[in-house]
Amino acid sequence: MDEKLAKIIDANIDNIPDWIETINTYNSRFEKEELSEDNRVDLTYKIADVLSEISDLHFKYGNFKDKFDKTKMHLNVYGLNLIIKSEKLDCTFYWGIDSYEGLYIDTYMKEANNLRYMTDDFYKDLMSLSDLGDFTIGENLGSSKEMEKKYNGLFNNQKSKIFNLLREYIIGIVENEKYIDLGSFRIKWNYETDFNELVQNSCLAFKILYKMNYSLWKISDLHRKKK
User: Fold this and answer.
1) Would you give the DSSP letter of residue 14?
2) This protein's superkingdom (predicted)?
3) What is the mean pLDDT of residues 32-50?
4) Exposure winner among 11, 143, 170, 210, fewest CB in 10 A?
5) Which is more confident, 160 or 200?
6) CA 86 to mean position of chain CA atoms
7) Is residue 79 helix, strand or coil?
8) Other C-beta atoms within 10 Å of 129: how many?
């Protein structure tokens, strides 16, 4: 852990037991059928506050020259996520909890058409995410059965993240798609993960995912400034 991150974690070490207790209480809600609607709503806002407080650490560690809107959240049957919108990049990060799978960060690459301009550092950052948690790239929802059939040979590799990323990009170029979808980038931590480590690695992961989105956005930004 670098010195800056260590100081951020140490400054918030007293909050961690409360965060863990809130998460455990939230995850036990399915076992409490007698829980009133008011109590459920209260619990929802408490877990949202925990996610919000941890996201503040993400921002502090990243020291981004950006503004984030995190006033909205999305609820589903298994949990919720904060919807974190970057003002500069106009992209969205989802920092959430799933009562069965753990905590996670989910995002998309907004300016994916610029992938061809990326250096090796972009792919090094991509691969480094696997060292921080359970990192996956979700399938592009636009990859229909028709596309899989048309490009059958390209869909046989399910193991290489870089190959699958480039596959979606190349198909997008060949099909002349205006907006290329590389799929969702998700990193998660199960409940067996040491919570200090989870907070630490979520800070590192958020910074990397932001940096990757920034690298893609910067190309478009430079093109706009030249016009």
Assistant:
1) G
2) Bacteria
3) 85
4) 11
5) 200
6) 13
7) strand
8) 23
Strand pairing class (92-98; 68-76): unpaired
Helices and strands per DSSP (H, E), number in the chain? 7, 6
* H or E segment and range at residue 126: helix 120-128
Residue 172: how many other CB atoms lie within 10 Å: 21
pLDDT at 33 over 80: no
Average pLDDT over residues 171-177: 79
Structure tokens at 92: 């969205």
Tokens representing 181 are 């979808």
Q: How confident is the model at residue 32 (pLDDT cuts 50, 70, 90)?
A: low
DSSP 135-190: EEEPPPTT--HHHHHHTGGGGS--S-HHHHHHHHHHHHHHTT-SS-----EEEEE-
How many other C-beta atoms can be found within 10 angstroms of the C-beta atom of residue 188? Answer: 21
| Average pLDDT taken over every residue of the chain | 90
Question: What Å distances lie between residue 51 and 12, 79, 165, CA to CA?
Answer: 14, 12, 29
Using a CB cutoff of 8 Å and minimum separation of 24, what contacts does 80-88 make? 80/44, 80/47, 80/48, 80/51, 81/51, 81/106, 82/48, 82/51, 82/52, 82/55, 84/55, 86/210, 86/213, 88/64, 88/217
